[in-house]
Every structure is written in C-alpha cells, then in structure tokens.
Amino acid sequence: MRDKQAVFAVVGVLVVVLGFVVLANVFLNRTDAAPPAATSTVSPTPGATSTPSATPTVKPTLLAGCSAPPKALAAPKKVGQPDLAAAKGKTFTGTITTTCGPLTIELDGAKAPAAVSSFINLATTGYYASSPCHRLTGDVQKLWVLQCGDPTGTGSGPGPGYHFGVENVPANDIYPVGTLALARKGNDPTSNSDQFFIVYKETKLPAAASAGGDGNGYTIFGKVTKGMDLVDKIAKAGINPSDHTSPLAPISILSVAVQPKA
Questions:
Q1: Contacts of 115 (CB under 8 A, 6+ apart)
Q2: 243: DSSP letter
C-alpha cells in the first residue's frame, strides 16, 4: 500500500511540473506581445524611410481643387551643367504650377548662388514638367516636409547629370515654414542636384554629427511666399499607407517659371 502511495505521489509531482512547463511555453510564445518601438530616419535624403509593415494597397485620394497628375517620366531629361555662379548676388521670384494650384516662390541667389542657379536651369529647360512630389513626412518622422523634384516620382532617379555642394545652412538648425531646401544623399554634402523639399511645419534638422546629423546640413535656397495652404492640405491628407512614403493625396509639378525680382 505504501508503495502504491509513493508511486501516486511521484506521478502527482510529475503532473504538476509538466503543467508549469506547458504554461511557461504558452506565455513565452505569445504572438500578441507588443512589438518593439518603430524607428525612422529623420533626413530629407531621397528614399530614406522607415521600414513599413505589410498593408493593403490604398488608392490615392484626389483632393478637391486638384487635377489628376500626369504620368511620371521613365527617365528625367538630361540637361547641361549650368554656370553655378549665374545667380550670385541676385534675387528671383517665380511660380511652381502644380496639379493643385500655383505656389509663388522667392529664390535667394545671394545666400545660395549654386542652388538657385541650378534650380533656374532646371526650371527653364522644362526639367520639372510632369514631376510628382514623391515623399511626405510628418509626426512619426519628426520631419514635416513635402519632397519633390524627381521626374521619375521614385525619389531615386538619376538626376540631371550634375551635382554640387552644400551652402546656406541655418546656424540654429531650424527650417521655418515655407522653406525651400535641397535634398541630398546622406553623408554626401556634394550630392545636391534636382530634388528639393518644402517645409510645412517648422522642422529642426541638426547638422552636427554629435546631434545626429552628418556634419553638413541642408541648403536653403528660397521660400514659398504664397500657396502654403495647398501644401498644408496635402500634408493633412496624410501619407499613403501602401508605401509609407508618398502623399495619399497626389500632387505633381507641371511647370516652373522664374524671373529676376523687380
């Protein structure tokens, strides 16, 4: 009898131990645990985005007052390298005509002669025609910009065939609302070319490497003086969840006209 009791006791202990093992495995292999915090690259570098999770395809939403964007180009127009000192000491005004209306701009050739000379070159040769604004960032990225200028609409187009260096970087790292600044490849201050961004909410982009920058900053070459309401409504519509990059409400550049300021 005692032998049977001992056997039953041993069996009981084994059952309890097995039960704890099963429960431990269940909790260690839960699939509904909170995921790690999402991270994003805070940089106007073309193509720099956070890694998205799989989501269904969402059709872009055409806003009231906007026309359907033209098809993006398979490859941008190649243009000759301009005289990057042509705009030195001069101020220009202009209009970026988009599928959602005009943006009136002012360009500062005194502070950013190379950037302004290049922008005028691309504008007058029709380089920006049928050019989608391909990237929108916001609260998640802590970067509030609409990025445009790549005629392929991908953000990774080959560009016009020339590059130049950084100039006119804000000393306080602040890019005010309406700022026009050049996008470039990370860690390459000589990669300025065709792509630019419009700041729709004040953004801080530290230039110093010790603060998370690459030691160079971004070239401010002008500002939007009228039409920021158009950019605001594109931003308000949000980022397309299909690619986590493009604006859900599409907007494309149709043409750019620039003239010396009177």
A1: 164, 167, 168, 182, 192, 219, 221
A2: T
Rounded CA-CA distance 248/237 in Å is 6
Q: How far is CA 112 from CA 134, 161, 164, 180, 228, in A?
A: 24, 20, 11, 11, 22
pLDDT over 70 at 27, yes or no: no
8 A C-beta contact, residue 211 and residue 204: no
CA atoms of 9 and 13, how far apart (whole Å): 6
182 phi, psi to nearest 5 deg: -85, 135
CA distance between the termini of the chain: 112
Question: b/e map of 194-216 (b: 16 or more CB within 10 Å)?
Answer: bbbbbbbeebebebeeeeebbeb
* Nearest-angstrom CA–CA distance, 169 and 161: 24
Distance of alpha carbon 75 from alpha carbon 81, whole angstroms: 17
Query: SS3 of 237, please?
Result: helix
CB atoms within 10 A of CB 28: 8
Using only C-alpha atoms, what is the Rg of the chain?
26
Q: Is the pTM of this model over 0.85?
A: no
pLDDT in tens, 121-168: 999 999 999 999 999 999 999 999 999 999 999 999 999 999 999 999
CB 135 within 8 A of CB 152: no
In tens, the pLDDT along 196-253 reads 999 999 999 999 988 989 999 999 999 999 999 999 999 999 999 999 999 999 999 9
